[in-house]
Design goal:
Layout: H1 3-14, E1 19-24, E2 30-34, H2 45-54, E3 58-60, E4 68-73, E5 78-82, H3 86-97, E6 101-105, E7 122-123, H4 127-134, E8 140-144, H5 149-162, E9 166-169, H6 173-185, H7 190-193, H8 209-225, H9 231-234
Parallel strand pairs: 5-6, 5-8, 6-7, 8-9
Antiparallel strand pairs: 1-2, 1-4, 3-4
Helix pairs in contact: 3-8
């Protein structure tokens, strides 16, 4: 790998950006594709998109010119949970098993205690204080679970603005309709509002906090693995 390519790849990794190094196994030629730059018109466009979604490296057979090896570098996904509630207690360990880095944020110290969330980064602060410090990006999911607009709304708006691959919020359809009105009044655009998953989670008729956590995690994983796909292709 030449020095310039190595520098670009390392910079992408440090910035939590997805990148693929494509190597021609016959000639040794290499090129670096960054997801943020797009790849329209690329002969391997579908393969590149699929590799970015799966995060898996591997060989790609081509008809002529030498086979291609795709070395995929994708940031580890993160799940930021707003609300140190019962659902979060079940969601955090399951999400960690699934490979997510989990962070819990809740300014209510009665809920945000280490006894309730051992071994999980926990911030007993307001989201608008924490989120700028930890950062949000396209490989971060945000689940707003407090049911309190004062805590949830700002975090949701920040996640939408950052392009998080998943933004979900707890509450009924009626509750969400009022949430949309508030966020729209705060300047959040219609397209972004339409990206919010609410009521949160896959519809499995969940009842208990643990069941709701399963539904939420399933929806987060689906959003991660379908990033960039059209609604038709994702169906």
């Amino acid at each position: 790998m030449d020095l310039d390519t190595l520098k670009r790849l390392n910079a992408a990794r440090q910035a939590r950006e997805a990148a693929i190094l494509i190597t021609n196994t016959a000639t040794g030629d290499e090129r670096l594709v960054l997801e943020k730059d797009g790849y329209d018109g690329d002969l391997q466009q579908d393969e590149i998109a699929a590799r970015f979604r799966s995060g898996k490296s591997g060989m790609v057979k081509v008809e002529e010119g030498g086979d291609l090896f795709f070395t995929v570098s994708v940031p580890p996904p993160r799940l930021v949970v707003i609300g140190a509630v019962h659902i979060s207690q079940a969601l955090a360990p399951m999400a960690r098993i699934a490979g997510f880095h989990v962070t819990i944020i809740d300014p209510r110290t009665a809920f945000a205690s280490e006894d309730r969330f051992p071994d999980v980064p926990l911030f007993a602060e307001w989201p608008d204080e924490v989120l700028p410090r930890i950062g949000l990006d396209r490989f971060t999911a945000l689940a707003a679970l407090t049911h309190d607009p004062k805590i949830d709304d700002g975090a949701i708006a920040a996640a939408l603005d950052a392009g998080c691959f998943y933004v979900g919020a707890l509450g009924s359809r009626k509750t969400h309709a009022k949430r949309v009105e508030r966020l729209a009044a705060a300047g959040v655009g219609g397209a972004a509002l339409g990206a919010i998953h609410a009521p949160i989670g896959v519809d499995i008729a969940a009842q208990s906090p643990a069941e709701i956590a399963v539904a939420v995690l399933a929806q987060v994983i689906a959003a991660l693995r379908r990033r960039g796909m059209s609604d038709e292709a994702a169906a």
